[in-house]
Amino acid sequence: MSGNLLFDAIFISFAGALLSLDRTAAFQTMAGRPLVSAPIIGYLAGSVQAGLVVGVTLELLLMGDLPVGTYVPSHETGLAVLATAVTVAAINAMGIRPFNPVGYVYTSMAIVPLALIVSLPVARAYRFADTLARRFNALIFHLAERSIGAQSGAINLVKFNLYGLVVFFAALWAAFLLTVFPLMLITRSLFSGAVFPRFLHSAFAGTILLGVASALTAVGTSRKELVFFAAGALASILMTVI
User: Fold this and answer.
1) Alpha-carbon torsion, ordered 227, 233, 238, 239, to 10 deg
2) 155 is a domain residue
3) What pTM does this model have?
4) Largest Cα–Cα distance of the chain, in whole Å?
5) Domain that holds residue 233
6) 118 with 12, same domain?
7) How many domains does the chain have?
8) Which pLDDT tens digit goes with each residue over 185-242?
9) Contact yes or no for 57/152 (Cβ under 8 A)
10) 10 Å Cβ neighbour count for 95?
């Protein structure tokens, strides 16, 4: 990160808006999924390790939340952007430096559950921005439909398609910036010089267990697989608490 919080928030929001286009508006290469987008944002913010922790956790939690039909799911890319930005801001405020990757991961494990608690309600703004962009693009669609019979209809269709991408990008960049910057600012103030006790890592274990359970529900499992999952879950809890 540059040290200028506003500049960092603008840069992170810009990158997040670009990644969000991959959800439905363009490309669709899965770059908008948390497992990919969170490490990218983490890299830009100064901690790939924290981004990986956020990405794995969110990917498990949101694996079954898919845009089927007219349903608009949770904005997984926005959640990844915000949670990663908050996590990295907290780690930096606590004085954990990038040359200590183990410290970054270890501290991230304690912060991620707190970052998600904050990010989940705030991320509703991203779903709202996404819905507004879709509604506005419906108007653009009708304009494009009317241009089909025009002499340069093909050129107009490309132009209107680009307009639609700009609408998605602008709406989400604004939504990201209006949420990422103030939350990073608050996080830096609250976590300055803070130290986390070891027991908070059990919260991360609980979050991962919830995510794995959600993922298993989404893909379907047999009883044998659930037994192995329960055994692994118990071992994870014991390792973090003891």
Assistant:
1) 120
2) no
3) 0.77
4) 73
5) 197-242
6) yes
7) 2
8) 998 888 887 766 555 666 666 666 666 656 655 555 455 455 555 555 555 555 444 4
9) no
10) 13
